Amino acid sequence: xxxxxxxxxxxxxxxxxxxxxxxxxxxxxxxxxxxxxxxxxxxxxxxxxxxxxxxxxxxxxxxxxxxxxxxxxxxxxxxxxxxxxxxxxxxxxxxxxxxxxxxxxxxxxxxxxxxxxxxxxxxxxxxxxxxxxxxxxxxxxxxxxxxxxxxxxxxxxxxxxxxxxxxxxxxxxxxxxxxxxxxxxxxxxxxxxxxxxxxxxxxxxxxxxxxxxxx
Length: 215
Hints:
Blueprint: H1 3-21, H2 35-46, H3 50-53, H4 61-74, H5 79-101, H6 117-128, H7 132-157, H8 164-202
Helix pairs in contact: 1-7, 1-8, 2-5, 4-5, 6-7, 7-8
């Protein structure tokens, strides 16, 4: 198994674990100090929209360009107008970005808003160029989820024949355990397969890989 595939499997395991527990993600694309708004500020200062186009889908580009043009006009009128115009552009950009993710836009969050630790770790990995700490973190979370449900199912199984109620408690723990593991595995395989298809269509991300060399 290649290093990239192992990384994808680890990431997929944690993603599935996160989805299974239904814990709301504290993402930062909708915060005033998040990467989307930071890119928007650069675009407005340079009066050049290119820096933010990567954050939206092609079908939303015309709408964003219109908002950008209007913002540039209004923000020159006064300090108050500039603040309002900038806010309008930030909100438009983030709303379109969220739409591209298939997620609702619930408004911009203040700078310093709490961010999911895993999201922060993912950003740190990209900045450092080393995903080691991120992989370790997400893998530990997935392993802990398996171990917790396994131990619960084993404990319930020991008393499953004591009564109908005890038997039902075991079955509930069994279903929780099996479904959790199934979700981890299916998500990991699906993500790995999707990544492989992308590589087949676009070629390896690292040219050296094409010739069997590693860095």
